[in-house]
Amino acid sequence: MSATGPTGFAVSGGAGGVSAHYDDLHALAGMLRAGAVTLREALADAARAAVDPALAASFALSPGSALEAEGALLSAAGPDGLGGAAFATEGLARALQAAVAAYRAADEALALGRDAALNGVGVAVGAALPVVAPVAAPALALGGAGGLERLADPALVEPLAAGLPGVAAGLGLWAPLPRGSRAGPRAVTFDGALRSPRGLLPAGRPALTAGGSAQPGDVVAPRGVGDLLRGVGRRQRRSAGAAPGEIGVRRLTAPDGTVRYVVELPGTESWALRPGPRVRDLATNVHAVSGRPTAYAHGVVAALEAAGVPPDAPVLLVGHSQGGIVAAGLAADPAVRRRFRVAAVVTAGSPLGRLPSGHGVPVLALEDRGDLVPALDGRPNRAGRDLTTVRFDSVPSTTGGKHALDGYARAAERLPHEDPSVRAWGKAASGFFVPGTVARQERYAVQRAGD
Asked: Where are the alpha helices (DSSP H) in 51-62?
């Protein structure tokens, strides 16, 4: 691998991950139960044959043969025959299902236990913060940029983000208590900690308008994931004519006439504390990271309808940062999947750890190990069959540069396609990269409607 390219690719989840093996075991249990049903049906047939009048009548003609047949049928119905086999097969199926449920419950308990432990630490930190901060702040300032850079480490940011609800609860101990109330931190969750910000930052309603100017590359069909991400980059390149809030819907017509669509979703463009017309803002981040509806997501659906995307046409959603959160959220939305055929998703630098499953829609999540943004939800991506996470180390750059879209596009050119999970995602998305495909670009701008 080139010294100027990304290194250290590591893949988790997807078709080759542990959760996929759980799914395989669950499917095997279903097959065993179906086999047990077949065996019970055969047992019933054998029992009916044993009491068939024709068999009884045959004793007069050939007592030996009739007796032998009767014995065979009774043996088949006994514990060493069909009956025992049906019982054993059903028992094995139940045992497999119970084992899979136990393994999955243990995985979920570990995730919840990790959050609870980090929240407990957060309570202690929050309670001590008013005392420690006046001393720690000058020491951190004396440490200079090096000290701040050490804090800006995703391996540290993720547990810090997970423990923030506890920090808030710990700080709450310093608030004056109403008369008669008891002291003590109130139990909070990550989603609960975002409840107040969501109330202050309403998601709003979308308004769909025309996008900006056409750009070179808009009518070129993608050859791989890197090209998909470069398409997202064009939608946020204001200097080249992109409009505020622009997204893209690219129509791909393969040589055999099959039509597919690629939806390009850029990331945050406004950090204003008060929601305004820019829908790709802080308010959308606060709602989207916990899987809640946003004006951005509703605007994407409106754009698909405006582009005339039919229900049976395969759709690939690709997004960077906030756009990736929205893309994964749309794939997990049953209402969207009923209206459109979401075939695959690509995200780059997006925190997806708290989003629900895509229910069979394969998601390829790219994460630079030096990028802080994927760690901001405080939880690593789940290792489900439908979510393949690829982590890598990019070339040395500033922390902000680790989140840059062009770095992700370069990494996408070197994906480890020999990995079974990456290979399975590529197979599911292969129709979007057919040579000879003709592309047509539609551009829309999603804004937040005024009240």
From this structure: 53-61
Asked if 352 contacts 371 with a C-beta cutoff of 8 angstroms, the reply is: no
Distance CA 118, CA 89 (A): 44
If we measure between CA atoms, which residue out of 297, 303, 296 comes closest to residue 281? 296
Would you say 226 and 408 are in contact if contact means Cβ atoms under 8 Å apart? no
In a domain, 222, yes or no: yes
Is 198 contained in some domain?
Answer: no
Report which residue type is found at 82: L
What pLDDT shows up at residue 148? 42
User: Of 168, 193, 218, which closes a domain?
Assistant: 193
Residue 35 has what DSSP assignment?
H
Q: Is the pLDDT reported for residue 1 higher than 50?
A: no
* Cα(27)–Cα(52) distance, integer angstroms: 38
Residue 249 β-bridge partners: 263, 442
Burial class (CB in 10 A: 0-12, 13-18, 19+), 363: buried
- Asked if residue 277 is part of any domain, the answer here is yes
Indicate the helix (H) or strand (E) that contains 335: helix 334-339
DSSP code for 277: S
The answer to whether 249 and 316 are in contact (CB under 8 A) is: no
Q: Regarding beta strands 387-393 and 438-448, do their DSSP bridges make them parallel or antiparallel, or are they unpaired?
A: unpaired
Domain that holds residue 116: 19-193
Cβ contact 36:75 at 8 Å: no
Tokens of 23: 């799914």
Rounded to 5 degrees, φ, ψ at 404 are: -65, 140
Query: At 57, is the pLDDT very low, low, confident or very high (cuts 50, 70, 90)?
Result: confident
So what's the pLDDT on residue 306?
97
Strands, sheet with 259-265, edge to edge from the N-terminal-most edge strand? 7-13, 387-393, 363-368, 341-348, 314-320, 259-265, 246-253, 438-448, 206-210
Question: Of 164, 193, 222, at which residue does a domain stop?
Answer: 193
What per-residue confidence (pLDDT) applies to 120?
A: 63
Q: What is the C-alpha to C-alpha distance for residues 415 and 11, in angstroms, rounded to an integer?
A: 10
pLDDT of residue 246: 97
Contact 417, 184 (CB under 8 A): no
Are residue 232 and residue 349 in the same domain, yes or no?
yes
Which residues neighbour 143 within 8 Å (Cβ) at sequence distance 6 or greater? Answer: none
Cα separation, 232 vs 350, whole angstroms: 14
The pTM score is: 0.73
CB–CB of 49/55 below 8 Å? yes
